[in-house]
Amino acid sequence: MDTTVSRLESIRQSQNELLYKGIKFSAIGTFAAAFVVVFTFGPVSSQFAAWMWFGLITLVYGARLVDSYLFHHSKTAGQNIRQWQRRFNFGAFNSTCVWASAMWLIYPQDPAYQVLLILVLGGVAGGALASLPYDKAISNIFQFVILLSVETRLLMEGDKFSLQLAVYSLFVFGFLLSCGRQVGKNYTDLLRLRQDSQETNLTLIRTTERMARMGYWQWDLRSDSFQLSENLARMWGFSSRTVKQSEWLSRVHRDDVNRVKRVMTAGQELAGEAAIEYRMLGPASGVYHDMNQITKSISESTGETFLLGTVQDITELKSAEHKIYKMAYYDELTGLSNRSHFQEQLRQQIKQAERRREMFAVVYIDLDDFKGVNDSYGHECGDRYLRSFSDHLRRSVRGSDLIARLGGDEFCVVLNDVKDRAQVTRTIERCFEYTKKTVEIGNHRINPKLSVGISLYPDDANEADDLLKTADMAMYSVKQNGKQCYAFYHTQMASDTVERVKIEASLREAVENDEFELWYQPKVSMPDCRLSGVEALIRWRHPERGLVPPDLFISTAERVGMIGEIGEWVLQTACRQQQLWKAQGHNLQMAVNISGSHFIADGFSDFVLENLSAYGVQPGELEIEITESMTRDPEQHGRISRALRSAGVRIAIDDFGTGYSSLSVLDKLEADTLKIDRSFISGLPGDDSSKLLVQAIMELSLGLGYDVVAEGVETYEQLDYLSSLKCPYIQGYYFSKPVVANEILAMIDGFGFKDKLAA
Q1: Which of 71, 138, 203, 729 sits a CA distance of 20 to 30 A from 517?
Q2: pTM, 2 dp
Q3: What order of strands is seen across the sheet that includes strand 273-281?
Q4: How do residues 666-693 score in pLDDT, each as one tens digit?
């Protein structure tokens, strides 16, 4: 029993000697790292907190250095073993607490600096493998306290980026804890079994090497050969443990060979240690592994000198660091730069352009109607669509240009060193080649459209945020003017943006202030020229601006999420007007245009039926118009349309022929009426292609039992041609523009319509 106690005390004493010996080197590394931390993170967090933290580091490590000095000069260190052990553990625990506090005292807001701080703390935790390997418990506590601080702070941040960073950090620190636990255990066992046979000790060393992916080599400077440890020979793929220097260097990556040679030379001349990271060809042909090597010159009592190198395979750690870096700077879906990286690179581009007196362009690209593709075909199809467009962008610009996905369907490109607008235009036209053909994603066919805005440095702006803002304004102006085009920024766009913001603010008050009106455009039956129904069209009578064009405020309502509220007002008002007309003895079918997002909203069909019941309107007297793009997903369109049609409500497909449907799906549509888009009607009767298309739609639609309405009829010639095709319903300015409700009454008996049959 006494022998066992004495043996344990001897092991503890050996641990104390090794641990206290390492304090000096640990303190030097700590002060150097702390200085770097203060000067790196102070400017992006809090200078006061950074220096306060540095003061704590200085206080704790100063006390530990004093402790180390007292230990080495104490005559009773061998007797008070447990006391000195507790003192060391107390100092080490204080050290890790101070390092862990960095996550709270100097945690930056910038994601890139957040990643950098965590990598620094990971390096400090990894340093415990070198400074605290002889005590498994204190080594694990050191790493665990830092891990706990990092994970707690990231989880409290709560955003997606922090949570993802927490997962990758857990992997890195988990790896360090695993290594620390095994290394600490093996070092403790090594001390415990120091009296055992050399073979037993070597076995433990080999186990440690394998667990920590470590090995060592020894070079007798009188020879050209290295002696490798068994595990290192296996890691490097050498069959023999004796390897010539030239053979070893031939496996080092050619870009790293000269650095390795310099370190080896310096290691021979210096008494201290020399560290280096390099890439080494592993056992798998063509695959390089990342190595971390520490070289030290050893002089024996005989006067002979040799180099000792300790090597660790850090490939997995490097991979984790790379993943964290990519997560901070790159879009996971497309591999393009993300918004954070783009803004950082844009600021660098401005500095470079200013220094070189160059011009560059910021190109803001929006993939039009991406939400519709995503909603109709699913997120997987949407993701593949985004990747397809990203690949096209890469092919369209130079390798030196920067491409980023800012989020959703928005992309940005920096075209550096452009000479004039013509050069920018040529690049933009290459981007638009993507829209010249149908993109096939699985079984779906998509016709891409782009809205592109361009801002030039230094003509339009000198700051990163302003360049992005002006390019965005130019892009938005394209959207307002029909999409599928590009525009260079000009100053009028800033005024348009201010106007748009004012419209948005006023729109929120329009419903409450009863500023909306419904106007009605007649739908005329042929050939008797009788008023058979009307289409309800919303108008906004602003108290200061007068009538605001629907094209302006409808798109704004979609963007700010008010389209559902406005759509409900239109439905209620239309049903109320229908109730009034019915009370006067007039039965007119009412058509109401509904946005796609409102149509698929939860409870839409119930809302329609409740309003019909509340105002005493028969379901067959209401027709819901939806745009053709809603038919891209037959299942979704069918589910909602069937619910309404089964109750008697009619469904019309508006703007037929312009969206994703084709004549091949006419027999599958859940609809009662097809409205031929005005873009086909405008070419009648002179344009042969328009005539053929309209004739084909008419014949097939009527043959399949649909009602057909021709929209946008403005001339007698158009009316005459449509009459020859036996088009049952006509709507357009030729008969009447949209009018207020009172004017509809004068048209009910056909007054003013029959005379339109004669040119």
Answers
A1: 729
A2: 0.49
A3: 242-244, 225-228, 214-220, 305-313, 288-299, 273-281
A4: 556 688 999 998 888 988 998 888 899 8
